[in-house]
Design brief:
312 residues; two-stranded antiparallel ribbon; Rossmann fold; five-stranded parallel beta sheet
Length: 312
Amino acid sequence: MKSVADYNYLIVGGTTKAATTSLFAYLTDHPAICAATYKETRFFLSSDYPLPSKYRYTGDIEAYASLFPNCREKQLRMESTPDYLYCEKARERIAEFLPQAKLVFSLREPISRLISWYRFAKQIGKLPQTLSFDAYVERLFAASEHNAAEEQHLQTLQQGCYTIYLKPYLSRLGTTRIHILFYEELATQPAKVMVNLCDFAGIDAGFYSTYTFKITNRTEKMRNSELHKKYRDFRFRLRQWTHDKPIIHNPLRMIRRTIEPLYLHLNTQPDENILMSEETQHRLVNYYQHDTDALSALIGKPLPWKPPEISN
């Protein structure tokens, strides 16, 4: 009988707010891939990492198999937990327990990502609706300087310094097991990005030649953020309960795909124009410049992004 370590895996990580949900959906549709029963298993995260999960490694790596209950023998098993990028324990556990796993990390221009995180944190009720982007950035710098960033939405400043986290992964797993892609290219050239990813994963890229790429989990401005928080909590708990019960889980997922667009239509409003002072932009550009240069040197090519323009 095969153990967990005997199978091939593709693990999607990377920075949050970099289209990892869309990427998970694209990969899930590929017939050569068997996806985990829900997107963010968070299995390999350390016990004190500030994200909840039903399944987390507690000493038995074979428990990981329960997340892939319906996979065929030769399918590539795939899951997506963005925060693996930031968790040392996750890196070491993947390296130790999954010797055949390949990892793909999705990255995004750090200031644009920060703006998206600001919108998202307000959407889910983690930040006051009246908090300006400048004030949020000031809060992030203060938390960083005092090592007080315990909650995820307050860790977003340093987490945009990708080289800090990628170097240990490349050193530990090697360059042949890690593929880096960029949100900006996935958004504008999804077919090209997926062909390159398929070549890395060793699966047929022809599947995406006629594929319709749809964006999922887009950050929206909510009319009622408290209602949306309750909706997300309910969806998370329901998914935890049904993920290993395909007779229930699969019909509910189809229902969600039908109903959720209607709900979002009713509970979203036109996005606000995020105002950022010249001082804040210069502060962020200076903060990220060294890591941006280091990342370009690390991957051996220019990065496909530039900082966003100031809106005043």
